[in-house]
Amino acid sequence: MLGQKSQFDVTAELAAGQSEAEILTASAFFPGESLTVETFSGKFSLSKQFATGLQSRLSLQGDRTEGGSSDFLSDQLDPAYQANMVLDLTQPLLKDFGWNANLAGINAAQIRKKQAALSYLGRAVQLVAEIEAAYLELAKAQEEYRHYTLARDLAQELLDGNELKLDAGLIPVTEVNEARSALAGREESMLLAQQGVLLAHNSLIDLLHEPEISQSEDLQVEFPKLDNSVFPELEEALSQGLNKRPDLLQMRLETDIRQIELDYADNQLWPRLDLEGSYALNGLAGDDQGAGSVYAGDWNDALSGAFDRDGTQWYAGLRLTMPLQNRAARAAYDSSRVSKRQTLYQLQRREIATETAIRSAHATTELGAKRYEVAKRYAALAEETLEQENQRLDEGLSDTFRVLSFQNALITARIREISAKVDYYKALSTLFAAMGTNLERYEIVAALPRIGAE
Question: In this structure, what are the phi and psi dihedrals at residue 15, rounded to the nearest 5 degrees?
């Protein structure tokens, strides 16, 4: 931004120099063959370009010339002091005319600043989606560990009961061994589930980058409460996604930049026609060589004379510059036109991809909700069936094998319920990420960085 605005900065210029010239002369009024003139000059100027394309320059110049009075035809001041204040103005009328042409770089830089903020927002959306997925994996791992612990406890309870029945001579030893074998297998499953909790915990910590959380070895998480009211209809999801996704907004801004570049390239096709104007105030002073000059004086007198408008000079005119083939400007215009078409095509492809992603995520979410409901009913029925089989065992109508089978069925049903729940939550996360609204979902406000300075 600052780099583009710098073209409108005021530029100061200071120059000083000395020159000497030996001028040959054949004047009858001067006996010598040459005339030596020595000049000391200094100049200070301020230049500025305006948004309309106007180029302005205000300069103050002073000269001290010595040796000129030796010539009869020269000034009768030696040394002579000249002071000039000049205002030069040049306004383009075709090429480089107007705000659009001269502010093109600044307008494009302002849009790129917005793009940078949207890029930051897009990374935030992606990071939140990754954290949410890792959080759900940890919640799933912890739930699975609790259910495998429950399975171990059920096997232990069954083993304790079988040992009592064995001591009473009610069942054979094979019933006890079968329970012991099931207990060992479930302890192994419990250890594997504990390992899964540790890995999921580390994955979440790696994304959070929070020292306090990183030091917590026992981070317990819970599933958020389901709220179907935040699950938008498909048309609403498509509308929000096409209007709020940071990458789409960023791409649309890119088309604005391409239009600015195309407009500028179109302006550069014109020939250059400049309206030029100049106005000068002149002052003169010097040491009188006996001729009684009214301009006798020093530097200050010459400068005062300029401000008193002792001498003025002005100029106005038009200047036309026209490249006959203009190939560079035509090539730049063609390139800008092709770039805009490519950007529009990329935007169209991105919009189609976004719509497809939202449709897929929406369908997965709907099916995930139904699957979760079925999984809950299945788990409830498995629990009810196990209770009935335990009653049959107490009545002597069942055996260890059947009870263990129903226990396994319950644990499997609970794990499937957890998986269905996590998949549903992940589908919701994917949907809101595809819409670009997962920050709004959790009422997170991204602290966008301040890029550059105004």
Answer: -140, 145
For residue 173, CA distances in Å to 169, 394, 405 come to 9, 18, 19
pLDDT score, position 259: 95
Tokens of 188: 């192994």
Q: Which residues 6+ apart lie within 8 Å of 301 measured at CB?
A: 81, 283, 285, 295
Residues 6+ apart with CB under 8 A from 215: none
pLDDT band at 139 (very low <50, low <70, confident <90, very high): very high
Q: Are strands 34-49 and 11-24 parallel, antiparallel or unpaired?
A: antiparallel
Give how far Cα 56 sits from Cα of 3, 95, 271, 321, Å: 20, 17, 21, 19
Contacts of 363 (CB under 8 A, 6+ apart): none
In order, the DSSP letters of 162-197 are HHHHHHTTSS-HHHHHHHHHHHHHHHHHHHHHHHHH
In whole numbers, what is the pLDDT of the chain averaged over residues? 88
User: Going by C-beta distance under 8 Å and a sequence separation of 6 or more, which residues neighbour residue 319?
Assistant: 272, 273, 274, 276
Q: What is the pLDDT of residue 284?
A: 85
pLDDT of 71 strictly over 80:
no
Q: How confident is the model at residue 31 (pLDDT cuts 50, 70, 90)?
A: low
CA atoms within 13 A on the CB side of 51: 8
The torsion angles phi and psi of 201, rounded to 5 degrees, stand at -60, -45
> Is the confidence at residue 380, as pLDDT, over 90?
yes
The three-state secondary structure class of 23 is strand
Q: List the chain domain ranges.
A: 2-92+273-321, 109-256+337-441
Distance CA 257, CA 248 (A): 14
DSSP string, 264-288: HHHHTTSPEEEEEEEEEEEEEEEEE
Please state the φ and ψ torsions of residue 148, each to the nearest 5 degrees: -70, -30
> What pLDDT, in 10s, does the model give residues 293-345?
677 777 788 788 778 777 889 999 999 999 988 999 999 999 999 999 999 99
Quick one: 418 exposed, middle or buried, by C-beta within 10 A (0-12, 13-18, 19+)? buried
What is the CATH architecture of 109-256+337-441?
Up-down Bundle (1.20)
